[in-house]
DNA sequence: CAATTAGAGACTTTACATATCTATAATAGC
DNA sequence: GCTATTATAGATATGTAAAGTCTCTAATTG
């Protein structure tokens, strides 16, 4: 059980875009080089962020990616969910025993984790 | 990013053993049948718990597994660590930037999760 | 000794993350 | 309109780890 590299790439990209105060699009070429990953693969990851409305993409020459308007609200959890999906960390083997104690513990722990990640915004890291 | 099925099997086995107040060994055959998993595979998982001192094994006829003496102290985190390993959920791609903000957020969130899981003991689920 | 049980190791299968390749679509600048 | 540049999409390949099987060995019971 680990966060995927794709999540790592997405977080680093978001942080970089946030640090760039400018609105000029940043090409995937540059973003990929910084992180030592292939541009086509990173592009595929960033497309997920585009579809979730976290960043915008601009085709054509001098194109690239920019943060969306509401970027200051984007949390770590948002980014993780965009890449890893939103399904629970804990897969129950049987069907929905509602008073199952194991499930209760695991889901409540996961919720604690999500709350923490929901409160941490990319924008908080930039302001200082 | 998900908890493995092996973790699920380990948790269910521990809970079952805890509910069995008796000290009689329970064979892997029976444990596996309940969880619809092959005995040899489950055996491999339970051996990890034996090595961490959470359960004891008894070979030979009428053998099986019993909880260890200190079983009331065993937390969810202990079991998860025994199966999934203890390495961090977040793999940092570069080497140890100590003031890295991303790493700081991810590790602190993970610590919150671990604290919650450390406070939940198998024995708490049985007492009621 | 015979039956039963856990443990160990090699191996296979499956699933998924990671990545590559190629073709298409959109845009800028000339 | 033409060309270069850039993102997007889909098919495909590779790598890795989880999940599971098979077989042999060791310990214990009776
Ligand atoms: S006991 Fe709980 S965790 Fe296990 S299968 Fe049933 S509902 Fe799921
Ligand atoms: S920026 Fe932080 S998370 Fe990223 S590689 Fe460096 S230390 Fe690791």
Explain what the structure shows.
Chains A, B: It comes from Lysinibacillus xylanilyticus. Chains A, B: One of its GO terms (cellular component) is cytosol. Chains A, B: This is Rrf2 family transcriptional regulator. Chains A, B: It holds the Pfam family Rrf2. The structure is a homodimer of 128-residue chains. The first copy, chain A, has 128 residues and is mostly helical. Chain A has a domain of 87 residues: Winged helix-like DNA-binding domain superfamily/Winged helix DNA-binding domain (Arc Repressor Mutant, subunit A, Orthogonal Bundle). Helix content of chain A is 54%, strand content 6%. Chain A contains six helices and two strands; from the N terminus they run αααββααα. In chain A, strands 1-2 form a two-stranded antiparallel ribbon. The mean pLDDT of chain A is 93. At the A-B interface, α1 and α5 of A face α1 and α5 of B. The complex binds iron/sulfur cluster (SF4) (2 copies). One iron/sulfur cluster binds next to α5 of chain B. Chain A binds a DNA duplex (30 and 30 nucleotides) through α3.
* Largest interface, Cβ cutoff 8 Å: A-B, 33 and 33 residues
Instruction: Tell me the series of helices and strands of chain A, N- to C-terminal.
Output: HHHEEHHH
Shape assignment of chain A: elongated
How far the N terminus sits from the C terminus of chain A, by CA atoms, comes to 33 Å
Structural class of chain A comes to mainly alpha
- Oligomerization category of the chains in this entry: homodimer
**Poorly predicted parts of chain A:** none
CATH topology of one domain in chain A: Arc Repressor Mutant, subunit A
What is the tally of beta strands of chain A?
A: 2
- Which CATH architecture of one domain in chain A? Orthogonal Bundle
How many whole angstroms does the radius of gyration of chain A measure? 17 Å
Strand order of the largest sheet of chain A: 1-2
- Helix fraction of chain A by DSSP (H/I, runs of at least 4): 40-55%
Count of DSSP helices of chain A?
Answer: 6
Largest sheet, strands/sense/barrel of chain A? 2 strands, antiparallel
> Given this structure, which CATH class of one domain in chain A is correct?
Mainly Alpha
Overall pLDDT confidence of chain A: 93
Beta-sheet strand percentage of chain A?
A: 5-15%
**What bound compounds does this protein have?**
iron/sulfur cluster
What would you give as the CATH superfamily of one domain in chain A?
A: Winged helix-like DNA-binding domain superfamily/Winged helix DNA-binding domain
């Amino acid at each position: 059980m680990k966060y995927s590299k794709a999540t790592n790439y997405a977080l680093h990209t978001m942080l970089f875009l946030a640090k760039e105060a400018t609105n000029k699009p940043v090409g995937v070429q540059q973003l990929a080089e910084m992180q030592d990953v292939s541009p086509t693969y990173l592009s595929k990851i960033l497309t997920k962020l585009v579809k979730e409305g976290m960043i915008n993409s601009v085709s054509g020459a001098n194109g690239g990616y920019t943060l969306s308007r509401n970027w200051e609200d984007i949390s770590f959890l948002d980014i993780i969910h965009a890449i890893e999906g939103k399904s629970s960390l804990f897969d129950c083997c049987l069907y929905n025993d509602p008073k199952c104690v194991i499930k209760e513990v695991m889901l409540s722990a996961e919720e604690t984790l999500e709350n923490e990640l929901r409160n941490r915004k990319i924008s908080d890291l930039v302001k200082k």
